[in-house]
Amino acid sequence: MAASTVSTQIQLVSHPVGWPTAADFRIVTVDLPDVAPGQVRVANEFISVDPYMRGRMNDVKSYIPPFVLGETMTGGAVGRVVASASDAFAVGDMVTHQYGWRDLVQEDASGFRVVAALSDVPFSAYLGVLGMTAFTAYVGLLEVAKLKEGDTVFVSGAAGAVGSMVGQIARLKGATRVIGSAGSAEKVALLTGKYGFDAAFNYKDGSITDQLAAAAAPDGIDVYFDNVGGEHLEAALARFNDGGRAAMCGAISLYNSTDVPTGPNNLSNIVTRGLTLTGFTVGNFWSNLPAFSAEMADWLAAGAIVFDETVIDGVENSVDAFLGLMRGENTGKMVVRTGGFAPTP
């Protein structure tokens, strides 16, 4: 019996204009060579699709290089070592890495990190609640927005992978009130039920500014964690208390727009209320990773943090998963389950 050496991979073949379509991608199969000294071969079990990847599909300078046309895309993944020519890894080790968008990867061992099994937590959690998603929430809320005990916090896109973590961490760190927005009645119920938000609203139901004003009455908000931008940012600027702080994490409402975006009409509030709006990327906060990992592990063990995943089966469905994510079809973290590899004759 020999393990499979054929890797199914997703490549970007054109830069999307507006919303990406299936025609912007292709599926290829690659025959992997023998494992060279210092390399490992990993069968991915889960790969991550994330909003930031939309920006990498544009040929523009950003904080992370764009995807190269005609080459396999990359992103977070977790899988099992199936062949190793490195003393640092044994067959069977579970590892995380950035060689996603494929079901089988073979690269230098330096690109992989062994992770431990945790009781009652699936390995896919290393892409979400134990990975960059929750780490983004952690540093954005605590290091960028400088959350203080007693703050009222507003989170846009709160039922997503990052937003659902922000709200829970805020409560654990002493926020007095946590408010979230989401795109359906079901997600609103999830926020105020399972995730423990004090209030939530469906941004599709009417004026975001009016709904936030009602949810935050009478005291306004102190911290805004922005995953959406656009009208959500304008609403937050209208409800900020003096000295309010915003962590600017993303602007998913604008990622696929072909129109010139219109800025909030109330930017003068930044001056008159002494607000601080700070953009950030998680790669500038690696020194905070040990503290995050320790606290999150403790919270999970104590049942103080809960999480959801939306799982799409099949690496060939990765593009559909990504497009679903951009349309808000996920609850919690969106991952693709590749299924790993069974031995083949």
Task: Provide an overview of this structure.
With 345 residues, the protein is an alpha/beta fold. The protein folds into two domains: 6-128 and 308-337, Medium-chain alcohol dehydrogenases, catalytic domain (Quinone Oxidoreductase, Chain A, domain 1, Alpha-Beta Complex), CATH 3.90.180; 132-285 and 294-298, Rossmann fold (3-Layer(aba) Sandwich), CATH 3.40.50. Helix content is 24%, strand content 25%. The protein has helices at residues 52-56, 132-144, 161-172, 185-192, 208-216, 231-239, 268-272, 289-302, 318-326; strands spanning 6-12, 25-31, 39-48, 77-84, 94-97, 104-108, 113-114, 152-155, 177-182, 199-202, 221-226, 240-248, 276-279, 309-313, 333-337. Helix 2 crosses helix 3. The mean pLDDT is 92.
The largest sheet is: 7 strands, mixed
Average pLDDT, to the nearest integer?
92
% residues in beta strands: 15-25%
- Evaluate the radius of gyration: 21 Å
Approximate helicity band: 10-25%
CATH fold group of the largest domain: Rossmann fold
Total strand segments: 15
CATH-scheme architecture of the largest domain: 3-Layer(aba) Sandwich
Stretches where pLDDT falls below 50 for ≥5 residues? none
CATH superfamily of the largest domain: NAD(P)-binding Rossmann-like Domain
The number of helices is 9
Supply the CATH class of the largest domain: Alpha Beta
What would you call the structural class? Answer: alpha/beta
Order of helices and strands: EEEHEEEEHEHEHEHEHEHEHEHE
First-last Cα distance: 5 Å
The number of domains is: 2
From the spread of the alpha carbons, the general shape counts as globular
